[in-house]
Amino acid sequence: MREDRYDDPAFFAKYSQMPRSRYGLEAAGEWETLRMLLPDFAGRRVLDLGCGYGWHCLYALEHGAAAVTGVDISEKMLAVAREKTGSGNACYIRAAMEDVEFPDAAFDVALSSLALHYVADFGAIAEKVYRWLAPGGAFVFSIEHPIFTAYGSQDWYRDEKGDILHFPVDNYFFEGAREAVFLGERVTKYHHTLTTILDGLLTRGFQLRRVVEPQPPERMLDMEGMCDELRRPMMLLVAAQRA
Prior knowledge:
alpha/beta, 8 helices
């Protein structure tokens, strides 16, 4: 995640107005499903890769985590995270997740929320996380779904009136960088196939506990565009465990 668009003032201003930025986890469409995949945090040492505003760090602390370490490349994001969680048992590191290093077995839980699609080499991160986790440790993450990242534009195919026809999927097996438009700005993301993600965990020693394609909760379906999220998967949620 070496491209830091979030410290760009214009981009960060737009991001800060998103519902999940303003209102936290309850405003995230995938949260109700993701929450069910999370382990018991009581007494655990927690790592959050791509921690952003620190919402998941705060949740872990509120549910008894002994210590939380958040990693993010954006100083603007980390400033908000520090304000939310205070100085207690939370530590924040400004770094790309590809570059940060920790001792073996330093954590009991590793989290990552919608950040791993900014990483070129998913397998390398999975290998690192496996080393950083103590035996039996949990790795729970959300990532943009391979169907959502494959074509690159991440926008619907529309007719001449602007009405949605379908969502394009192409070049699925050609993994690598994609130029997407997010919040009206060009952002580089990385497409990984489902095999790369799931088999990449298995071949590095993880056991898969749950794999879920979340749907928006019924309470959000009246929000603009939310019903369209039922037409194709946008995210993939994975809960894995270190042997």
